[in-house]
Amino acid sequence: MTRLLLKWSAAACLSLTVVGSGRPACAMPSPSDTTGIAITTADTTAITGDTTTAAARTDAGTNASREKMQALKEQAQEIAEDVKEDLKEGWKDAKESFKETGSEFWHNLKEKAQEWKEEATDFFETHVKSQVVGQFSDNRRQCNQDFCQHLLGGFKAYKIQTYRPEFPEIPKSKSEPDTVWPALTLVEPADFRSLNRPSAPTAPESFYDELIQSNQIKVKADGVELTLNLEPRLSTYGIGAPTEKNLAAFWQKLSESRFDIPLRQIYDAAQKHHLNDWGLYRLTQAAAVAIYPKNKNGEQAAWTVFMLNQAGYAAKIGRMGADKKTYRLIVLLPFYEKIYGCPYVEIGGAPFYVMEKLAGKQRSEPVYSYDGCFALGTAPLSLQFPETLGIPCLYEKNDRFAYNLRMLDFYKSYPCAPTALYLHAPCGEVLSKSIQHKCGPMVDSLLHLYQTSPACATDSSATAGTIAATASETATVHDAQTCQEAVIAYLGRFAATYFDDNAKKKIKPEGHPLFPDEAFALKAGDAKDRALMHARLVRRFVGLPVVLAEYEKTALVGIALPQPPATAVGQALAAIKGDDGTMFYLFNPNAKDGAFWHCPKPLRDIKPVVVL
Q: What does DSSP assign to residue 26?
């Protein structure tokens, strides 16, 4: 390096020498040296006149300059080579030094970045989040903290209860032979609107939506589509081995996320499409699958339960498996109704149903879960329906009726519940309009038939007259009830001929009821399905109160009439007397000989299960 500096100094001094003078440019003339400075008029004339001498002097100076420039160039090249060598040596030394210190440098940089991230998160939580969510979120946060501690308390083993049958059991008890059974207390099912359902989740602030607009995910369940706004880090959360400690840590992470945004979006979608609690659960489950498609350690089940708890439902996380390698998380749901054909465990005296198909040895495995529940999740789910079910339509049509194909997909997942649920299940909008289009004109003509003219009963030119004459050929009083009986008979014939028993056997086991859309779309139904369908149609088109008299393998429809049926002359009439004195006369839609008001002999001494 010393040699390099000396060369640079020599070159610098050489370059600063004034050409033609021999004096360095930095050397100033002394005051006494005026020879080279004072120029007289005679000297000027001599210089101007003697051009040849001046030119010769200039050429000599130029040659000298070229020689000096060449020398400088050569010296510069030497210096450049030396610099190049020095740079190579310096770069080599730097690389060696970087290899030694690089790992430590990056480690320190990562730690510093993590510190910055934590500081930013703390600032966000302290100065932004708390100002928006307020006291409500503080209370919810405390409940989640307490629940995490509850999870750390350890799971307990619960034995899977004996399987209930695939459908409700009907007693075979006999009563004294009588055409009218004693008064029975008829209990109406709870109105879906009056159930203790959770209130709507608190809506997030608008600017929070903007913060996470960049991370959106598409969710679709039973035709309901929505776009969820999620924090980018949410889908990166994992549980690891689903132990109590890891599950509590996962719950803690979820509770610190902006879960209220997707929660509100799911709730709003369920309200928009008039979904019941089962539809809300299906939508939440679909969102969990979209967020955690790999589901390595049961993240889908944990996230589903977390969201249901935050929405106010008393769902639980269950765990099955003998050790950490075979652990798997499952969803446990409580319901208002009694569910059939579904395993369950009793926790705190209440049944919690396993939302997973179990086969073989799995049915004898214990289910591990926790006593108690999340403080804000207390309501069971209900399988009952609102007045309408607004699942988006996927139009389909058979030979007579149009229906919503997505309704069939929705009902495939439905647990089997008490018969009253099927009696009050609404038709899909498309099917409802199709039924009105097909059956409405005939019903209207029958209702007005006897009121216009008794002679119309024998009018061979009208199809309605033919059906009415067959259904009420013994009628003598042409009043409003007779017209209603004609419609009831017409609907009975329709139910007896349209819904096929053999088609039902290919779908569900005997005794397991079908929903309206399933029965009409598949043209399937056994004796109970035909009775359920007839009861729905009578209630819709005639507007009379109805009950279902359910037996072991069949059912009759009890129809409230002010007087005994006029068309039941000569038939074995039976009735159920309600607790308020109302008489429900039994109608058999499965009768193929037209004797609809005839109670079959094997059923006359058996007390049915009455479904209102």
A: T
